[in-house]
Amino acid sequence: MVAAILLSMLALTGFFALFQNGGFRALDFIDPDDALRLVEVRDWMAGQSWFDVSQHRINPPFGGEMHWWRLLDVPIATSIAFFRLFLGPARAEHVALIVWPLLLYGLFLLMLRSALKHLGDQAFVLTGLFLPLSMVFLARQFSPLRIDHHGWQVVAATALLGLSLGKRTGLRGLLAGLAMAFYLSISLEALPYFLLFGGLYAFAYWRNAEGWPMLAAFLLGCTAGVMVSLPASRGWGALTAVHCDGLSAPYWSALAGGSVALILGAGVLGHAGAARRFGVLALAGVAALALFFLVAPECRTGPFGALDPLVRQYWYLNVLEGLPLWKQEPLTALYSVLPSLMGLAGALLALRRVEPRMRDRWRTMLILMVGAFAVSIGVLRAMYVAHAFAIPGCAVLILAVWRWARGIDNTALRILASAASVAVVPLVPLAVVSYVDELVTNDSEQESSLKVASCFQQENIAKLNRLAPATFLAPIDIGPSILTDTPHSVIATGHHRNQAAMAEVIGAYLAKGNKARELVTGSHADFLMICQGTQEMDIYIEAAPNGLAAQLARGQTPAWLVPVQPDGLKPYQVYRIVRR
Questions:
Q1: Residues 6 or more apart whose Cβ sits within 8 Å of residue 327
Q2: Is 473 helix (H, G, I), strand (E, B) or coil?
Protein backbone atom coordinates (compact mmCIF):
# COMPACT_ATOMS: atom_id res chain seq x y z
CA MET A 1 0.00 0.00 0.00
CA VAL A 2 2.89 2.37 0.71
CA ALA A 3 4.20 1.70 -2.79
CA ALA A 4 0.75 2.47 -4.25
CA ILE A 5 0.59 5.78 -2.36
CA LEU A 6 4.08 6.77 -3.52
CA LEU A 7 3.22 5.78 -7.09
CA SER A 8 0.02 7.86 -6.98
CA MET A 9 2.04 10.83 -5.68
CA LEU A 10 4.57 10.34 -8.48
CA ALA A 11 1.78 10.21 -11.07
CA LEU A 12 0.28 13.44 -9.73
CA THR A 13 3.68 15.12 -9.94
CA GLY A 14 4.15 13.90 -13.50
CA PHE A 15 0.73 15.15 -14.56
CA PHE A 16 1.29 18.70 -13.34
CA ALA A 17 4.90 18.74 -14.52
CA LEU A 18 3.65 17.88 -17.99
CA PHE A 19 0.63 20.17 -18.21
CA GLN A 20 1.35 23.06 -15.84
CA ASN A 21 5.13 23.23 -15.77
CA GLY A 22 5.29 26.77 -17.14
CA GLY A 23 2.84 28.03 -14.54
CA PHE A 24 4.55 26.74 -11.42
CA ARG A 25 8.01 27.35 -12.86
CA ALA A 26 7.09 31.04 -13.17
CA LEU A 27 5.42 31.09 -9.72
CA ASP A 28 2.01 31.93 -11.20
CA PHE A 29 -0.59 31.01 -8.58
CA ILE A 30 -3.93 29.61 -9.73
CA ASP A 31 -5.75 31.40 -6.91
CA PRO A 32 -5.11 34.79 -5.24
CA ASP A 33 -5.45 33.11 -1.83
CA ASP A 34 -2.38 30.97 -2.51
CA ALA A 35 -0.39 34.13 -3.20
CA LEU A 36 -1.63 35.80 -0.03
CA ARG A 37 -0.87 32.68 2.01
CA LEU A 38 2.75 32.96 0.88
CA VAL A 39 2.79 36.61 1.98
CA GLU A 40 1.46 35.56 5.39
CA VAL A 41 4.16 32.88 5.74
CA ARG A 42 6.90 35.31 4.71
CA ASP A 43 5.70 37.90 7.23
CA TRP A 44 5.69 35.33 10.04
CA MET A 45 9.14 34.04 9.12
CA ALA A 46 10.34 37.66 9.07
CA GLY A 47 9.21 38.20 12.66
CA GLN A 48 5.49 39.01 12.65
CA SER A 49 3.79 37.70 15.79
CA TRP A 50 2.34 34.19 15.83
CA PHE A 51 -0.94 35.67 17.04
CA ASP A 52 -1.04 38.39 14.37
CA VAL A 53 -2.31 37.07 11.03
CA SER A 54 -3.35 40.48 9.73
CA GLN A 55 -1.79 41.84 6.55
CA HIS A 56 -0.11 45.18 7.24
CA ARG A 57 0.35 45.97 3.53
CA ILE A 58 -3.40 45.83 2.96
CA ASN A 59 -5.07 49.20 3.51
CA PRO A 60 -2.12 50.86 5.26
CA PRO A 61 -1.74 52.36 7.77
CA PHE A 62 -4.69 50.47 9.25
CA GLY A 63 -3.86 46.98 7.99
CA GLY A 64 -6.16 44.21 6.82
CA GLU A 65 -7.66 41.74 9.27
CA MET A 66 -7.61 38.08 8.16
CA HIS A 67 -9.63 35.10 9.39
CA TRP A 68 -6.99 32.50 8.48
CA TRP A 69 -5.52 29.94 10.90
CA ARG A 70 -1.84 30.36 11.69
CA LEU A 71 -1.20 26.63 12.23
CA LEU A 72 -1.45 25.97 8.49
CA ASP A 73 1.54 28.27 7.94
CA VAL A 74 3.80 25.96 9.98
CA PRO A 75 4.38 23.16 7.44
CA ILE A 76 4.93 25.69 4.63
CA ALA A 77 7.44 27.65 6.68
CA THR A 78 9.10 24.42 7.80
CA SER A 79 9.47 23.28 4.20
CA ILE A 80 11.01 26.61 3.20
CA ALA A 81 13.42 26.51 6.16
CA PHE A 82 14.44 22.94 5.28
CA PHE A 83 15.26 23.72 1.66
CA ARG A 84 17.18 26.81 2.73
CA LEU A 85 19.75 24.37 4.15
CA PHE A 86 20.66 23.46 0.58
CA LEU A 87 19.42 26.30 -1.64
CA GLY A 88 19.29 30.08 -1.78
CA PRO A 89 16.27 31.79 -0.14
CA ALA A 90 14.28 32.39 -3.35
CA ARG A 91 14.91 28.92 -4.81
CA ALA A 92 14.22 27.26 -1.45
CA GLU A 93 10.86 29.01 -1.25
CA HIS A 94 10.01 28.02 -4.80
CA VAL A 95 10.91 24.35 -4.30
CA ALA A 96 8.98 24.21 -1.02
CA LEU A 97 5.83 25.53 -2.72
CA ILE A 98 6.09 22.69 -5.23
CA VAL A 99 6.94 19.91 -2.76
CA TRP A 100 4.62 20.75 0.13
CA PRO A 101 1.28 20.26 -1.72
CA LEU A 102 2.58 16.88 -2.90
CA LEU A 103 3.30 15.83 0.71
CA LEU A 104 -0.21 16.96 1.67
CA TYR A 105 -1.55 14.79 -1.14
CA GLY A 106 0.29 11.86 0.43
CA LEU A 107 -1.43 12.59 3.76
CA PHE A 108 -4.79 12.69 1.96
CA LEU A 109 -4.08 9.27 0.45
CA LEU A 110 -3.32 7.87 3.91
CA MET A 111 -6.68 9.14 5.17
CA LEU A 112 -8.37 7.76 2.06
CA ARG A 113 -6.73 4.36 2.54
CA SER A 114 -8.07 4.27 6.10
CA ALA A 115 -11.60 4.79 4.79
CA LEU A 116 -11.30 2.35 1.88
CA LYS A 117 -10.01 -0.48 4.11
CA HIS A 118 -13.38 -0.55 5.88
CA LEU A 119 -15.29 -1.05 2.64
CA GLY A 120 -13.52 -3.58 0.42
CA ASP A 121 -10.61 -5.82 -0.45
CA GLN A 122 -7.08 -4.96 -1.56
CA ALA A 123 -8.02 -4.53 -5.22
CA PHE A 124 -10.73 -2.09 -4.14
CA VAL A 125 -8.30 -0.11 -1.98
CA LEU A 126 -5.67 0.06 -4.72
CA THR A 127 -8.24 1.26 -7.25
CA GLY A 128 -9.42 3.95 -4.86
CA LEU A 129 -5.89 5.22 -4.20
CA PHE A 130 -5.39 6.01 -7.89
CA LEU A 131 -8.85 7.44 -8.53
CA PRO A 132 -8.05 10.98 -7.27
CA LEU A 133 -5.81 11.32 -10.32
CA SER A 134 -8.91 11.07 -12.52
CA MET A 135 -10.81 13.75 -10.60
CA VAL A 136 -9.29 16.93 -11.95
CA PHE A 137 -10.85 19.40 -9.53
CA LEU A 138 -9.89 17.26 -6.53
CA ALA A 139 -6.33 16.66 -7.74
CA ARG A 140 -5.92 20.38 -8.37
CA GLN A 141 -6.14 21.04 -4.62
CA PHE A 142 -2.76 19.32 -4.29
CA SER A 143 -1.07 20.78 -7.36
CA PRO A 144 2.22 22.73 -7.14
CA LEU A 145 1.82 26.15 -5.51
CA ARG A 146 -1.63 25.21 -4.13
CA ILE A 147 -0.77 26.17 -0.56
CA ASP A 148 -4.04 27.65 0.66
CA HIS A 149 -6.32 25.71 3.01
CA HIS A 150 -8.50 23.76 0.55
CA GLY A 151 -6.24 20.69 0.49
CA TRP A 152 -6.28 20.60 4.29
CA GLN A 153 -10.07 20.70 4.26
CA VAL A 154 -10.19 17.63 2.02
CA VAL A 155 -7.71 15.84 4.34
CA ALA A 156 -9.78 16.63 7.45
CA ALA A 157 -13.06 15.56 5.82
CA THR A 158 -11.52 12.30 4.59
CA ALA A 159 -10.12 11.58 8.07
CA LEU A 160 -13.64 12.00 9.46
CA LEU A 161 -14.95 9.65 6.79
CA GLY A 162 -12.53 6.90 7.81
CA LEU A 163 -13.35 7.30 11.50
CA SER A 164 -17.08 7.05 10.77
CA LEU A 165 -16.95 3.77 8.88
CA GLY A 166 -15.47 1.54 11.58
CA LYS A 167 -16.92 0.37 14.86
CA ARG A 168 -18.46 3.28 16.78
CA THR A 169 -16.39 3.61 19.94
CA GLY A 170 -15.53 6.39 22.33
CA LEU A 171 -11.96 6.53 21.04
CA ARG A 172 -13.11 6.92 17.46
CA GLY A 173 -15.56 9.59 18.57
CA LEU A 174 -12.78 11.49 20.35
CA LEU A 175 -10.52 11.35 17.30
CA ALA A 176 -13.42 12.43 15.06
CA GLY A 177 -14.11 15.34 17.42
CA LEU A 178 -10.49 16.49 17.29
CA ALA A 179 -10.49 16.16 13.49
CA MET A 180 -13.65 18.26 13.33
CA ALA A 181 -12.13 20.90 15.62
CA PHE A 182 -9.17 21.05 13.24
CA TYR A 183 -11.56 21.38 10.28
CA LEU A 184 -13.61 24.13 11.95
CA SER A 185 -10.45 26.01 12.89
CA ILE A 186 -9.46 26.14 9.23
CA SER A 187 -12.75 27.62 8.08
CA LEU A 188 -16.45 27.77 8.88
CA GLU A 189 -16.93 25.99 5.56
CA ALA A 190 -16.65 22.91 7.82
CA LEU A 191 -19.93 23.75 9.58
CA PRO A 192 -22.17 21.74 7.19
CA TYR A 193 -19.90 18.73 7.73
CA PHE A 194 -20.13 19.16 11.50
CA LEU A 195 -23.89 18.91 11.08
CA LEU A 196 -23.49 15.96 8.70
CA PHE A 197 -21.19 13.85 10.88
CA GLY A 198 -22.75 15.01 14.14
CA GLY A 199 -26.18 14.21 12.75
CA LEU A 200 -24.97 10.74 11.72
CA TYR A 201 -23.71 10.00 15.25
CA ALA A 202 -26.84 11.50 16.82
CA PHE A 203 -29.10 9.34 14.65
CA ALA A 204 -27.11 6.23 15.55
CA TYR A 205 -27.55 7.08 19.25
CA TRP A 206 -31.27 7.71 18.83
CA ARG A 207 -31.67 4.29 17.21
CA ASN A 208 -29.55 2.50 19.79
CA ALA A 209 -27.97 3.53 23.09
CA GLU A 210 -24.74 1.86 21.95
CA GLY A 211 -24.13 4.98 19.86
CA TRP A 212 -23.72 7.12 23.00
CA PRO A 213 -19.93 6.76 23.51
CA MET A 214 -19.11 7.97 20.00
CA LEU A 215 -21.56 10.88 20.04
CA ALA A 216 -20.52 12.11 23.49
CA ALA A 217 -16.81 11.74 22.76
CA PHE A 218 -17.23 13.50 19.40
CA LEU A 219 -18.86 16.57 20.94
CA LEU A 220 -16.51 16.73 23.92
CA GLY A 221 -13.44 16.19 21.71
CA CYS A 222 -14.58 18.86 19.28
CA THR A 223 -15.29 21.31 22.12
CA ALA A 224 -11.92 20.68 23.76
CA GLY A 225 -10.11 20.97 20.43
CA VAL A 226 -11.78 24.29 19.61
CA MET A 227 -11.16 25.70 23.09
CA VAL A 228 -7.45 24.92 22.72
CA SER A 229 -7.20 25.99 19.07
CA LEU A 230 -8.61 29.50 19.49
CA PRO A 231 -6.30 30.89 22.21
CA ALA A 232 -3.32 28.90 20.92
CA SER A 233 -3.57 30.50 17.49
CA ARG A 234 -5.05 33.95 18.23
CA GLY A 235 -4.49 34.62 21.92
CA TRP A 236 -6.94 34.65 24.83
CA GLY A 237 -8.91 37.51 23.30
CA ALA A 238 -10.12 35.13 20.58
CA LEU A 239 -12.42 33.46 23.13
CA THR A 240 -14.47 36.63 23.56
CA ALA A 241 -14.27 37.97 19.99
CA VAL A 242 -17.41 37.76 17.85
CA HIS A 243 -17.03 37.01 14.15
CA CYS A 244 -19.95 35.62 12.18
CA ASP A 245 -17.57 34.41 9.44
CA GLY A 246 -15.15 32.42 11.58
CA LEU A 247 -14.72 30.30 14.67
CA SER A 248 -15.31 32.64 17.61
CA ALA A 249 -17.45 33.17 20.72
CA PRO A 250 -20.91 32.37 19.26
CA TYR A 251 -19.73 29.10 17.75
CA TRP A 252 -17.67 27.73 20.62
CA SER A 253 -20.40 28.82 23.06
CA ALA A 254 -23.01 26.87 21.11
CA LEU A 255 -20.71 23.86 20.88
CA ALA A 256 -19.83 23.90 24.57
CA GLY A 257 -23.40 24.58 25.66
CA GLY A 258 -24.77 21.79 23.51
CA SER A 259 -22.15 19.35 24.82
CA VAL A 260 -22.88 20.20 28.47
CA ALA A 261 -26.63 19.96 27.87
CA LEU A 262 -26.13 16.56 26.21
CA ILE A 263 -24.20 15.18 29.18
CA LEU A 264 -26.59 16.64 31.78
CA GLY A 265 -29.64 15.52 29.81
CA ALA A 266 -28.32 11.97 29.57
CA GLY A 267 -27.66 12.00 33.33
CA VAL A 268 -31.23 13.05 34.08
CA LEU A 269 -33.19 11.21 31.36
CA GLY A 270 -30.92 8.22 30.84
CA HIS A 271 -30.62 6.19 27.65
CA ALA A 272 -33.53 3.79 28.09
CA GLY A 273 -35.95 4.10 25.18
CA ALA A 274 -35.84 6.06 21.93
CA ALA A 275 -38.12 8.78 23.35
CA ARG A 276 -35.71 9.54 26.20
CA ARG A 277 -32.74 9.55 23.85
CA PHE A 278 -34.60 11.93 21.53
CA GLY A 279 -35.23 14.18 24.54
CA VAL A 280 -31.48 14.23 25.30
CA LEU A 281 -30.70 15.21 21.70
CA ALA A 282 -33.44 17.86 21.62
CA LEU A 283 -32.16 19.41 24.84
CA ALA A 284 -28.63 19.64 23.43
CA GLY A 285 -29.88 21.17 20.18
CA VAL A 286 -32.05 23.79 21.90
CA ALA A 287 -29.22 24.75 24.26
CA ALA A 288 -26.75 25.15 21.38
CA LEU A 289 -29.10 27.33 19.33
CA ALA A 290 -30.12 29.44 22.31
CA LEU A 291 -26.51 30.19 23.24
CA PHE A 292 -25.57 30.98 19.65
CA PHE A 293 -28.31 33.60 19.26
CA LEU A 294 -27.80 34.92 22.80
CA VAL A 295 -24.07 35.55 22.26
CA ALA A 296 -24.33 36.90 18.72
CA PRO A 297 -27.86 37.69 17.50
CA GLU A 298 -26.29 39.60 14.59
CA CYS A 299 -25.04 36.29 13.17
CA ARG A 300 -28.55 34.99 12.52
CA THR A 301 -28.28 36.17 8.88
CA GLY A 302 -25.18 34.02 8.30
CA PRO A 303 -21.45 34.66 7.81
CA PHE A 304 -21.99 37.16 4.99
CA GLY A 305 -25.25 38.71 6.10
CA ALA A 306 -23.72 42.07 6.96
CA LEU A 307 -21.73 42.63 3.77
CA ASP A 308 -21.61 46.14 2.34
CA PRO A 309 -24.09 46.34 -0.60
CA LEU A 310 -21.33 47.26 -3.08
CA VAL A 311 -19.15 44.39 -1.91
CA ARG A 312 -22.04 41.93 -2.08
CA GLN A 313 -23.16 42.96 -5.58
CA TYR A 314 -19.83 43.42 -7.32
CA TRP A 315 -17.61 40.93 -5.44
CA TYR A 316 -19.42 38.27 -3.41
CA LEU A 317 -22.04 37.44 -6.03
CA ASN A 318 -19.28 37.11 -8.65
CA VAL A 319 -17.14 34.64 -6.69
CA LEU A 320 -18.64 31.69 -8.56
CA GLU A 321 -17.06 28.94 -6.45
CA GLY A 322 -18.95 30.27 -3.43
CA LEU A 323 -22.33 30.18 -5.18
CA PRO A 324 -24.77 27.26 -5.58
CA LEU A 325 -24.77 24.89 -8.52
CA TRP A 326 -27.72 26.53 -10.23
CA LYS A 327 -25.77 29.79 -10.48
CA GLN A 328 -22.96 28.14 -12.47
CA GLU A 329 -22.41 27.70 -16.19
CA PRO A 330 -23.99 24.39 -17.35
CA LEU A 331 -20.61 22.87 -18.19
CA THR A 332 -19.18 23.72 -14.76
CA ALA A 333 -22.24 22.25 -13.08
CA LEU A 334 -21.89 19.06 -15.11
CA TYR A 335 -18.20 18.76 -14.22
CA SER A 336 -19.19 19.09 -10.58
CA VAL A 337 -21.98 16.50 -10.45
CA LEU A 338 -20.62 13.74 -12.73
CA PRO A 339 -18.09 12.18 -10.29
CA SER A 340 -20.62 12.38 -7.45
CA LEU A 341 -23.36 10.73 -9.51
CA MET A 342 -20.97 7.96 -10.55
CA GLY A 343 -19.99 7.48 -6.91
CA LEU A 344 -23.62 7.27 -5.82
CA ALA A 345 -24.35 4.68 -8.51
CA GLY A 346 -21.41 2.59 -7.32
CA ALA A 347 -22.47 2.85 -3.68
CA LEU A 348 -25.99 1.66 -4.53
CA LEU A 349 -24.47 -1.24 -6.47
CA ALA A 350 -22.28 -2.13 -3.50
CA LEU A 351 -25.30 -2.21 -1.19
CA ARG A 352 -26.87 -4.84 -3.43
CA ARG A 353 -23.77 -7.01 -3.69
CA VAL A 354 -21.78 -6.85 -0.45
CA GLU A 355 -22.14 -9.42 2.28
CA PRO A 356 -24.52 -8.57 5.15
CA ARG A 357 -21.79 -7.60 7.65
CA MET A 358 -20.59 -4.86 5.26
CA ARG A 359 -23.99 -3.36 4.52
CA ASP A 360 -24.08 -1.08 7.54
CA ARG A 361 -20.75 0.47 6.51
CA TRP A 362 -21.95 1.03 2.96
CA ARG A 363 -25.19 2.56 4.25
CA THR A 364 -23.10 4.98 6.28
CA MET A 365 -20.95 5.65 3.22
CA LEU A 366 -24.03 6.34 1.12
CA ILE A 367 -25.47 8.75 3.70
CA LEU A 368 -22.21 10.70 3.89
CA MET A 369 -21.86 10.69 0.12
CA VAL A 370 -25.38 12.09 -0.33
CA GLY A 371 -24.74 14.68 2.38
CA ALA A 372 -21.48 15.86 0.83
CA PHE A 373 -23.12 15.97 -2.60
CA ALA A 374 -25.96 18.10 -1.20
CA VAL A 375 -23.44 20.54 0.31
CA SER A 376 -21.66 20.79 -3.06
CA ILE A 377 -24.95 21.68 -4.74
CA GLY A 378 -25.31 24.57 -2.30
CA VAL A 379 -21.67 25.76 -2.58
CA LEU A 380 -19.64 24.84 -5.64
CA ARG A 381 -16.22 24.69 -3.95
CA ALA A 382 -17.57 21.98 -1.63
CA MET A 383 -17.32 19.63 -4.62
CA TYR A 384 -13.71 18.89 -3.58
CA VAL A 385 -15.00 17.00 -0.54
CA ALA A 386 -17.94 15.53 -2.48
CA HIS A 387 -15.55 14.10 -5.08
CA ALA A 388 -13.31 12.65 -2.35
CA PHE A 389 -16.36 10.97 -0.81
CA ALA A 390 -17.39 9.66 -4.24
CA ILE A 391 -14.14 7.67 -4.63
CA PRO A 392 -15.35 4.46 -2.90
CA GLY A 393 -18.47 4.29 -5.09
CA CYS A 394 -16.47 5.02 -8.25
CA ALA A 395 -14.04 2.23 -7.29
CA VAL A 396 -16.94 -0.23 -7.00
CA LEU A 397 -18.27 0.84 -10.41
CA ILE A 398 -14.89 0.50 -12.12
CA LEU A 399 -14.16 -2.94 -10.64
CA ALA A 400 -17.67 -4.20 -11.42
CA VAL A 401 -17.38 -3.21 -15.09
CA TRP A 402 -13.84 -4.57 -15.34
CA ARG A 403 -14.76 -7.94 -13.81
CA TRP A 404 -17.82 -8.19 -16.04
CA ALA A 405 -15.67 -7.50 -19.09
CA ARG A 406 -13.04 -10.06 -18.05
CA GLY A 407 -15.76 -12.68 -17.63
CA ILE A 408 -16.89 -12.56 -21.29
CA ASP A 409 -16.10 -15.87 -23.02
CA ASN A 410 -15.49 -14.49 -26.51
CA THR A 411 -11.87 -13.31 -26.68
CA ALA A 412 -12.45 -10.40 -29.06
CA LEU A 413 -15.45 -9.13 -27.12
CA ARG A 414 -13.59 -9.58 -23.85
CA ILE A 415 -10.67 -7.44 -25.05
CA LEU A 416 -13.02 -4.81 -26.48
CA ALA A 417 -15.13 -4.66 -23.33
CA SER A 418 -12.05 -4.52 -21.10
CA ALA A 419 -10.68 -1.58 -23.06
CA ALA A 420 -14.06 0.14 -23.00
CA SER A 421 -14.29 -0.23 -19.20
CA VAL A 422 -12.16 2.89 -18.82
CA ALA A 423 -15.34 4.81 -19.69
CA VAL A 424 -16.38 4.58 -16.02
CA VAL A 425 -13.20 6.31 -14.84
CA PRO A 426 -14.45 9.85 -13.98
CA LEU A 427 -11.85 11.57 -16.16
CA VAL A 428 -13.17 9.93 -19.33
CA PRO A 429 -16.78 11.23 -19.29
CA LEU A 430 -15.46 14.63 -18.19
CA ALA A 431 -13.11 14.68 -21.17
CA VAL A 432 -15.94 13.66 -23.51
CA VAL A 433 -18.17 16.43 -22.17
CA SER A 434 -15.35 18.95 -22.62
CA TYR A 435 -14.69 17.79 -26.19
CA VAL A 436 -18.37 18.00 -27.15
CA ASP A 437 -18.56 21.47 -25.63
CA GLU A 438 -15.63 22.59 -27.80
CA LEU A 439 -17.42 21.31 -30.89
CA VAL A 440 -20.63 23.19 -30.19
CA THR A 441 -19.04 26.40 -28.86
CA ASN A 442 -18.08 28.99 -31.46
CA ASP A 443 -14.56 30.40 -31.60
CA SER A 444 -15.42 33.76 -30.07
CA GLU A 445 -17.09 32.08 -27.08
CA GLN A 446 -14.07 29.81 -26.60
CA GLU A 447 -11.70 32.75 -26.80
CA SER A 448 -13.73 34.65 -24.21
CA SER A 449 -13.95 31.70 -21.82
CA LEU A 450 -10.24 30.86 -22.08
CA LYS A 451 -8.96 34.43 -21.89
CA VAL A 452 -6.54 34.88 -19.02
CA ALA A 453 -5.27 38.39 -18.47
CA SER A 454 -1.52 38.56 -18.19
CA CYS A 455 -1.93 41.07 -15.34
CA PHE A 456 -1.92 38.06 -13.04
CA GLN A 457 1.38 36.73 -14.32
CA GLN A 458 4.40 37.21 -12.12
CA GLU A 459 6.74 38.47 -14.82
CA ASN A 460 4.43 41.40 -15.61
CA ILE A 461 3.66 42.29 -12.01
CA ALA A 462 7.41 42.28 -11.28
CA LYS A 463 7.84 45.33 -13.51
CA LEU A 464 6.21 47.37 -10.76
CA ASN A 465 9.41 46.88 -8.76
CA ARG A 466 10.89 49.73 -10.78
CA LEU A 467 8.68 52.08 -8.79
CA ALA A 468 9.58 53.03 -5.23
CA PRO A 469 7.43 51.22 -2.61
CA ALA A 470 3.96 52.76 -2.64
CA THR A 471 0.28 52.03 -2.04
CA PHE A 472 -1.89 51.03 -5.00
CA LEU A 473 -5.61 51.36 -5.53
CA ALA A 474 -5.68 48.23 -7.67
CA PRO A 475 -8.23 45.61 -8.74
CA ILE A 476 -9.14 43.50 -5.73
CA ASP A 477 -8.28 40.16 -7.35
CA ILE A 478 -4.78 41.21 -8.36
CA GLY A 479 -3.92 42.63 -4.94
CA PRO A 480 -2.35 39.41 -3.56
CA SER A 481 -0.05 39.15 -6.59
CA ILE A 482 1.16 42.69 -6.01
CA LEU A 483 1.88 41.84 -2.36
CA THR A 484 3.68 38.63 -3.32
CA ASP A 485 5.88 39.92 -6.11
CA THR A 486 6.54 43.56 -5.20
CA PRO A 487 7.27 45.65 -2.09
CA HIS A 488 4.10 47.68 -2.69
CA SER A 489 0.91 47.84 -0.63
CA VAL A 490 -2.71 47.76 -1.80
CA ILE A 491 -5.95 49.27 -0.55
CA ALA A 492 -7.88 45.99 -0.64
CA THR A 493 -7.88 42.30 -1.59
CA GLY A 494 -10.83 39.93 -1.86
CA HIS A 495 -11.12 39.21 1.86
CA HIS A 496 -14.41 40.26 3.36
CA ARG A 497 -13.30 41.30 6.84
CA ASN A 498 -11.86 44.35 5.11
CA GLN A 499 -15.12 45.15 3.39
CA ALA A 500 -14.86 48.90 4.02
CA ALA A 501 -11.63 49.02 2.00
CA MET A 502 -13.14 46.73 -0.63
CA ALA A 503 -16.14 49.05 -0.97
CA GLU A 504 -13.74 51.98 -1.31
CA VAL A 505 -11.99 50.34 -4.28
CA ILE A 506 -15.18 49.17 -5.98
CA GLY A 507 -16.85 52.54 -5.50
CA ALA A 508 -13.86 54.36 -7.01
CA TYR A 509 -13.88 52.25 -10.19
CA LEU A 510 -17.65 52.67 -10.61
CA ALA A 511 -17.81 56.40 -9.85
CA LYS A 512 -17.59 59.13 -12.47
CA GLY A 513 -16.56 62.76 -12.64
CA ASN A 514 -16.00 64.64 -9.41
CA LYS A 515 -17.23 61.70 -7.33
CA ALA A 516 -14.49 59.48 -8.75
CA ARG A 517 -11.89 62.17 -8.07
CA GLU A 518 -13.16 62.60 -4.52
CA LEU A 519 -12.97 58.86 -3.78
CA VAL A 520 -9.56 58.30 -5.36
CA THR A 521 -7.80 61.36 -4.00
CA GLY A 522 -9.43 60.78 -0.61
CA SER A 523 -7.86 57.32 -0.35
CA HIS A 524 -4.42 56.49 1.03
CA ALA A 525 -3.23 55.31 -2.38
CA ASP A 526 -0.28 56.79 -4.27
CA PHE A 527 -1.14 55.10 -7.57
CA LEU A 528 -4.24 53.77 -9.31
CA MET A 529 -4.13 50.72 -11.57
CA ILE A 530 -6.48 49.23 -14.12
CA CYS A 531 -6.06 45.76 -15.56
CA GLN A 532 -8.03 45.27 -18.77
CA GLY A 533 -9.38 41.88 -19.79
CA THR A 534 -9.98 40.57 -16.28
CA GLN A 535 -13.40 39.53 -15.08
CA GLU A 536 -13.31 42.13 -12.31
CA MET A 537 -12.65 45.06 -14.65
CA ASP A 538 -15.26 43.80 -17.11
CA ILE A 539 -17.82 43.82 -14.29
CA TYR A 540 -17.05 47.45 -13.43
CA ILE A 541 -17.12 48.55 -17.07
CA GLU A 542 -20.43 46.82 -17.75
CA ALA A 543 -22.04 48.13 -14.55
CA ALA A 544 -20.88 51.73 -15.08
CA PRO A 545 -20.15 52.49 -18.79
CA ASN A 546 -19.30 56.08 -17.85
CA GLY A 547 -17.48 55.22 -14.65
CA LEU A 548 -13.75 55.64 -13.98
CA ALA A 549 -12.78 52.09 -14.97
CA ALA A 550 -14.64 52.36 -18.29
CA GLN A 551 -13.26 55.84 -18.93
CA LEU A 552 -9.65 54.71 -18.39
CA ALA A 553 -10.20 51.57 -20.48
CA ARG A 554 -11.17 53.85 -23.38
CA GLY A 555 -7.98 55.84 -22.93
CA GLN A 556 -9.71 58.87 -21.42
CA THR A 557 -7.48 59.99 -18.57
CA PRO A 558 -8.70 62.72 -16.17
CA ALA A 559 -6.30 65.53 -15.31
CA TRP A 560 -5.85 64.30 -11.71
CA LEU A 561 -4.31 61.00 -12.92
CA VAL A 562 -0.88 61.01 -14.58
CA PRO A 563 0.06 57.86 -16.58
CA VAL A 564 3.18 56.09 -15.34
CA GLN A 565 4.63 53.54 -17.75
CA PRO A 566 7.96 52.08 -16.60
CA ASP A 567 9.07 49.95 -19.54
CA GLY A 568 5.50 49.73 -20.86
CA LEU A 569 3.25 48.26 -18.18
CA LYS A 570 0.88 46.66 -20.67
CA PRO A 571 -1.74 45.13 -20.39
CA TYR A 572 -2.25 47.11 -17.23
CA GLN A 573 -1.91 50.83 -16.79
CA VAL A 574 -0.67 52.69 -13.73
CA TYR A 575 -1.52 56.30 -12.90
CA ARG A 576 -0.01 58.57 -10.29
CA ILE A 577 -2.74 60.22 -8.21
CA VAL A 578 -2.42 64.02 -8.21
CA ARG A 579 -3.71 65.81 -5.10
CA ARG A 580 -3.67 69.57 -5.51
A1: 320
A2: strand
Distance between CA atoms of residues 115 and 390, nearest Å: 12
- Which strand (E) or helix (H) includes residue 575? strand 572-577
Is residue 4 one of the residues assigned to a domain? no
The answer as to whether 231 is a domain residue is yes
C-beta separation of 9 from 102 below 8 A: yes
Mention every residue, 6+ apart, whose C-beta is less than 8 A from residue 267.
none
Give pLDDT tens digits for 120-156. Answer: 999 999 999 999 988 888 988 998 889 999 999 999 9
Residue 547: how many other CB atoms lie within 10 Å: 22
Asked whether 299 and 191 are in contact (CB, 8 A), the reply is no
CATH code assigned at 476: 3.40.50
* 10 has pLDDT over 70: yes
Pairing of strands 489-490, 561-564: unpaired
Mean per-residue pLDDT over the chain, rounded: 88
Task: Give me the DSSP letters along 313-334.
Answer: HHTGGG-GGGS-GGGS-HHHHH
Q: Does residue 534 sit within a domain?
A: yes
Question: Which residues share a beta bridge with 55?
Answer: 64
Select from 303, 320, 346 the last residue of a domain: 303
Q: Which of 258, 279, 303 is a domain's end point?
A: 303
Domain with 248, as residue range(s), is 185-303
Specify if 373 maps to a domain: no
Residue 270: which region, alpha, beta or left (left: phi > 0; alpha: psi -120 to 50)? left
d(CA 138, CA 150): 10
What contacts 350, CB < 8 A, 6 or more positions away?
119, 362, 365, 392, 393, 396
pLDDT at 26: 57
Measured between alpha carbons, how far is 132 from 184 in angstroms, rounded to an integer?
Answer: 24
Question: Who's near 409: CB < 8 A, 6+ residues apart?
Answer: none
303 SS3 class: coil
* pTM as predicted: 0.92
- Name all contacts of 77-83 with Cβ < 8 Å and 24+ positions apart: 77/41, 77/44, 77/45, 79/103, 80/41, 80/45, 81/45
Q: Residue 254's closest CA among 222, 293, 207?
A: 293
Residue-level pLDDT at 528: 94
Distance between CA atoms of residues 101 and 38, nearest Å: 13
Confidence band, pLDDT 50/70/90 cuts, at residue 164: very high
Coil, strand or helix at 561: strand
Least confident stretch, 475-484, 494-503, 565-574? 565-574
Backbone angles phi, psi at 547, to 5 degrees: -80, 180
DSSP string, 489-552: EES--S-GGGHHHHHHHHHHHH--HHHHHHHHHTSS-SEEEEETTSHHHHHHHHH-TTSHHHHH
Q: Are 324 and 378 in contact (CB under 8 A)?
A: yes
Q: How many domains does the chain have?
A: 2
pLDDT value at residue 136:
83
